[in-house]
Design brief:
Layout: H1 3-19, E1 27-28, E2 37-39, E3 45-48, E4 54-65, E5 71-76, E6 83-89, H2 91-97, E7 99-108, E8 114-123, E9 128-137
Parallel strand pairs: 3-9
Antiparallel strand pairs: 1-9, 2-4, 4-7, 5-6, 5-8, 6-7, 8-9
C-alpha cells in the first residue's frame, strides 16, 4: 500500500472513532458487571493487501466512564505473524471528560486474502471487555477486489 492509502486509512479510522456512538456495552463476562467503564463497540475495519500487510497501524478504543486503574488495550485473534503492542488509557485521560479514544497498535503481517475476525481487548486488571474488529485482506482495498 502506498503512504497515501495508509494515510487515508488512518484518517478513516480516526473519523470512525469520533463517529462512534455508544451502542451498548461491549461483550463482558458476568464478573465484569461492576466495571465503572465501558469499551464502546464500533464497526472498525481495516483493509490491507496480502503481499504487504500493514506493519504499523492502529485501531481505536473508545471508552466511557471512569477508572482508578490504567486500562490496557490490545488486538487479539490476529492473522498468523501479526502482532499488537496494544495501548493504555490512563485514569486522568478518561476521568477528565468521561470519554476517551485511545490508540491500539497493531502490525498486520502479509497474509492470504480473506476476512479475519479479530478482537479489541481492554482490561483494568479486574474487568475485561472486548469488541469485534475486522481485518479485510484484499488485492485492491480501494476497489474491493
Amino acid at each position: 500500500m502506498t503512504s497515501i492509502h495508509r494515510g487515508a486509512g488512518l484518517l478513516f479510522a480516526l473519523a470512525t472513532a469520533f463517529a462512534l456512538v455508544p451502542a451498548g456495552a461491549a461483550q463482558a463476562s458476568a464478573a465484569d458487571s461492576a466495571a465503572t467503564w465501558t469499551l464502546n463497540p464500533g464497526n472498525q475495519r481495516i483493509c490491507v493487501t496480502p503481499e504487504h500487510g500493514w506493519p504499523q497501524t492502529y485501531f481505536l478504543a473508545s471508552v466511557t466512564g471512569s477508572t482508578a486503574e490504567v486500562i490496557e488495550t490490545r488486538i487479539q485473534k490476529l492473522p498468523p505473524g501479526s502482532s499488537s503492542q496494544g495501548g493504555r488509557i490512563y485514569p486522568d485521560e478518561l476521568n477528565r471528560t468521561g470519554t476517551f479514544v485511545g490508540f491500539v497498535h497493531v502490525s498486520i503481517a502479509p497474509t492470504p486474502v480473506g476476512e479475519y475476525a479479530a478482537e479489541l481487548w481492554a482490561s483494568d486488571g479486574t474487568a475485561t471487555q472486548t469488541a469485534p474488529v475486522t481485518i479485510s485482506v484484499k488485492d485492491d482495498c480501494l476497489h474491493g477486489t
